[in-house]
Amino acid sequence: MSDDCIFCSIVAGDIPARTVHETDDVLAFLDANPLARGHTLVIPKSHAQHVGDLDEDLASELFATVTELTPRVQAAVDADGANVGINDGEAAGQEVPHVHVHVIPRFEGDGGAPLHAVGGTRPDLSDDELDAVAEAIAG
Hints:
The chain is an alpha+beta fold. The chain has helices at residues 6-12, 56-77, 127-138, and strands at 19-22, 26-30, 40-44, 81-85, 101-106.
């Protein structure tokens, strides 16, 4: 737990939330500032700032919860689809420094954009650059 983390305060029960799912390690609740009706956040109960800070078991439980909840969120609000995403780090738009997965219901004609729109201008990468990036990621 982190004393200055709003999500840790929600886990501790110090701040109320509209909880939709809870296990020993994961909590899901409606976003207090939703982008759409039904916008849900899924978090690990233990404090972790970045996705890479999660251990394998917790990451598995977190994403199993996302997998279970996404169709339930969509059904609850009669959505046509959903965006599921994580802002990992301040440069990516992470406002609360605690891992959280957004499940955002989407509706035909809602004016929203796909996740591809968050990246800004697409880079023009050569095959050599793509090969170098792939090699760096693969290790």
